[in-house]
Amino acid sequence: MLKTLTTALVASVAMIATASACEITLKSSDTHPDGYPTVEAVKYMGELLKERTDGRICVEVFHSAQLGEEKDSIEQTKFGVIDLNRVSTGPFNNIVEETKVVSLPYIFKSVDHMHRVVDGPIGEDILKGFESEGFIGLTYYDGGARSFYNSVKPIKSIDDLKGMKIRVMQSDIFVDMMSALGANATPLAYGEVYSSIQTGVIDGAENNWPSFESSGHFEVAPNYTLDQHLIVPEVLVMSKISWDKLSPEDQALVKQAAKDSTPKMRELWAAREKVSEEKVREAGVNVITEIDKQPFMDAMDSVYEKHVTSDKLKDLVKRIRATD
Ligand code: GTR
């Protein structure tokens, strides 16, 4: 009995010692639930960092919007209350001008094209834009392709969207995108979408397979049209306030661990997309795959005209289009 107790005591002391060995614990925010690819990728980054700093720097991921919805959490990150934040680039559009280009509808030919852009110099140039606004852009994650879903009827052509109330992420680009499609945009926090569809405040929203599934939106909006109007990458950012507290060596380690988590994220993402699609289809959601995207693309000219006005953005769009 005494021996067992002593062993247990030694074990718990050892555990406390390991836990308290973290000199720095970086608090990280994510809107998604535990197990979602973005959440798991940031945890993985934390493991790498802990290993590479002999346990000195740790990451604690707060999933399921525990630290707030994306827009608020971005503010908290700017103030240094939150150290790391994994968000879509969408809610950054009104803060970091450069992020607008990757939020433009149909800017990317495919997810592979998006990877080639964000993994190269264009991606780095966009990340640099975060610094003057109080953030360090660390790395990109995947957000698949976003498509429309709603509770009313299957959208088979652009005409079906007319007059519908569709939730978008909080960015002017997406509001204008919906107007260009003849619909009414309702910018809302992600966490409010389910009940807003359920109560009929909005008709639908738009997202990728994993979000459509994990949020449960498919339960209340069972018509999903694969028009893939947006391929918006996601970002992992750090508060500049938290970053400035680190030594240059530690900054480099944080950056590297973040970069090294991207391939892991993409692996997890590919697997989750399949699982989510299966789950949604099994639930009987009406998935419309045959859709002529051309009219959707043509309608976007006004969005580009309104938002791609500065030389900086014009140049970025040109470079993205010149990327094979
Ligand atoms: C998801 C994305 C989240 C959030 C959400 C939304 O695809 O991963 O970061 O932006 O969409 O629509 O608000």
Automatic annotation (TrEMBL):
GO biological process, any: transmembrane transport
Swiss-Prot/TrEMBL keywords: Receptor, Signal
Organism for this UniProt entry: Cohaesibacter marisflavi
Source organism superkingdom: Bacteria
GO cellular component, one term: outer membrane-bounded periplasmic space
PANTHER family: DICARBOXYLATE-BINDING PERIPLASMIC PROTEIN (PTHR33376:SF2), PTHR33376
The protein's name: Tripartite ATP-independent transporter solute receptor, DctP family
Pfam families for this protein: DctP (PF03480)
GO molecular function, one term: carbohydrate binding
InterPro entries per record: DctP_fam, TRAP_DctP, TRAP_DctP_sf
Signal peptide extent: 1-21
Keyword Signal: yes
